[in-house]
Amino acid sequence: MVKLNKIYTRTGDGGETGLADGSRRRKDDARLYAIGAVDEANAALGLARLYAEDDLDALLARVQNALFDLGADLATPGEPEGWTPLRVRADQVTGLETALDAYNEALEPLDSFILPAGGALATHLHMARTLVRRAERDAAALAAREAVNPEALRYLNRLSDLLFVLARHANNDGRGDVKWVPGL
Fold first, then answer.
1. C-alpha–C-alpha distance, residues 44 and 180, integer Å
2. 90-104 and 150-170 are packed helices; what angle lies between their axes, rounded to 10 degrees?
């Protein structure tokens, strides 16, 4: 378990931050962009949870925990000697797919693009979805430069899909979706 007695360390004052393996990176490094984007998406899910009830809240809580796993995964480049880093696993991706299938089944079919709008929960889920998409882009950019766990990339891709479906679920199973009106 993590124990934090002191929040500030002053070690980042020069524009660098420490990774889980003890290495240091500039704060504008691609790895830090990806980690930061995952953190932003997680915070947006925390806001969405203010409006979620029961099963959906429990699902979003699991996702938030998995995003911390994903952040830890990204914060540990390579395979450090002497310890096994936390990595996103294939079964976590499969769990998202299972939830996706279950929630998607009840939705009204799409006959138009929809706006990121509707009720408060749906709108927060749409916002979280866009932030997950940014995290996915940043993680993909990192993966183009150095090794990234492919399950982390898959997790982000499935999560954005799940959040789209959950936003539609929150909009009365799609009946409350706000349709795009081209040229309005």
1. 24
2. 20
Q: Which residues of 8-23 are buried (b: 16+ CB within 10 A; e: fewer)?
A: eeeeeeeeebebbeee
* Distance in Å from the first CA to the final CA of the chain: 53
Query: Domain 28-77+86-177 belongs to what topology?
Result: Hypothetical Protein Ta1238; Chain: A; (1.20.1200)
Domain ranges (residues) in the chain: 28-77+86-177
pLDDT digits (tens, 9 = 90+) for 98-153: 999 999 999 989 999 999 999 999 999 999 999 999 999 999 999 999 999 999 99
d(CA 98, CA 105) in angstroms, rounded, equals 11
pTM of the shown model: 0.93
Query: Token digits for 62?
Result: 């699991």
